Amino acid sequence: MTSDQWVSTSVPYLRPRTLEQREAWAEQAASAGRRGTQRIVEAGEVTPSDLVAELLRLRSGEAAVVRRRVIYLDDTPIEMTDSYYPAAIARGSALTDPQPIRGGAVTLLASLGHLGRRVVEEVAARLPTEQERHVLTIDTGDPILMLTRVVFDSHDEPIQADVMIAPARAQRLRYEMVIG
Fold this sequence. Notes:
Helices cover about 20% and strands about 35% of the residues. By secondary structure, the chain is of the alpha+beta class. It has a single domain (about 5-175), classed as Chorismate lyase. A hairpin with a 2-residue loop joins β3 and β4 (about 75-85). It comes from Acrocarpospora macrocephala. One of its GO terms (molecular function) is DNA binding.
């Protein structure tokens, strides 16, 4: 990994953690001798976009809870991440509070009885919007990667949908799977 490239792996963000463990991003960055932080920009109930409603299998106009964050590596913004949860399972929980959650959102969901069993991720490239350019401090012609992730429970119901935006120049995604 070069100093301007970050290798992303999803697994640490999909498993519940203990309340004493560091946040997954901070732990992953520290293991590479770096500093990973995040800023929660918004948390609360919203009417999601058509894309998110489809990912969460919500009916038209049905609410979701969102946690919008900007992810930093060594004080440089490297990703914008919006995590959505069906309001039916997240309403009234700490997911609606714009504060860090001990153990992380996945741990909170598990404590509420919603444990992820299957994950679907899709990656697409496109040019950034003006807001994405501003937040990620990238040029107009610099492409971004958009990763969408949906986490399903043991009943194959979606419990979380993430939309992550990152500059393509600084990302490399790595997928590891255990078969059998």
